[in-house]
Amino acid sequence: MQLRYNFRITPDAAQRTALAQAFGCARVVFNDGLRLRQQAREAGEKYVSDGDLSKMVITRAKATPERAWLGEVSSAVLQQALADLNVAYRNFFASVTGKRKGRKIATPRFRSRKDNRQAIRFARNARFKVLDNGRLRLPKIGDLPVRWSRTLPSDPSSVTIIKDAAGRYFASFVVQTGGDEVLPPVDSEVGIDLGLTHFAVMSDGTKVTAPKFLRRAARKLKRLQQALSRKQKGSNRRKKAVVQVARAHARVADTRRDWQHKLSTAIIRDNQAVYVEDLCVLGLGRTRLAKSVHDAGWAAFTGMLEYKATRYGRTFGRVDRFFPSTRMCSDCGRINDKMALNVREWDCLCGRHHDRDVNAAINIKAAGQADFNDRGAQVRPGLVPAPRSEAVTHPDVACSTRSVEGLSVL
Description:
The protein is about 40% helix and about 15% strand. The protein is of the alpha+beta class and about 400 residues long. A hairpin with a 3-residue loop joins strand 9 (about 190-195) and strand 10 (about 200). Helix 1 packs across helix 3 (about 75-95).
């Protein structure tokens, strides 16, 4: 399977200038290609093909005085910008025709130099190279120092240079991993019920308290946001304040991601099969609990479990969101009436006393095992884990009662 390995890079002043120029040229080529296709559509002309578009916005544009500076950056960066535009159009057409699942995708939008995230990509034919001294050599940019935290399992097929809102630079390598990472089999399986008070409740009774990284950093973020609001628009002090706010948010996101990686790795290592509930995160993000839902980061966590299960030879399944795991008795199977969120424990008519979240986790495990055994495949399997930008829920699908009931009170 293909994986991404992200590393921090520290370019010097000249390299930062070269990267800024590459970001700008890639953005101009993308916008020029999008503008030409929009003009052709408005004029009723034929859709501009990928090859013709490349000739018009790159080859011929370099010969004009207005776009002569496009020749100062690597042509691979410009070609990849057009490749991104072509992929965006193909995704849009597939969404309109119904070939692409999920919510509808709009037409590509113009890129702005004020976007928080800037990125360029070098494919294998761009002749980028990881040198013996650990530096990353990029054409017309130079040798970038890389902070290696681990070695790459294979030669990368591409590298993306990213500048985030906090002004940090990253190199994201795409590598191919083999099947030598499969972990030895174990006997245990687990069902996981996700919540807010307890981030994850396991079917074996283990409860993981929600760290609430955003809530813990709320006081500092409030102070930085207030300082930003007092700065005059367009001033240098306002630009510095924007970076300070972005760095504070990046610190929260990095801490959450690191914690989720450690927890997901431990779960996959200790269990042969992992079953979770397919929560309607998109719908829950529109409720009064939206801030807590986004702070929890359930979608990112389940995505980690999914790709790590595929990588290490484990089983991962999603139980349908309409499955009444909270109201069903894990002992007799009786489905009881709806209960309020403040009811954390309840008694079934069969005489069994249940902890609300532990009972839901047990039912999720049982439902996942039943579906897996009936079909002989993973519950709602996916050949390749979807990227975060594509793992979405259709906006017209209403959240199930179970999706709301599974939340713990704040």
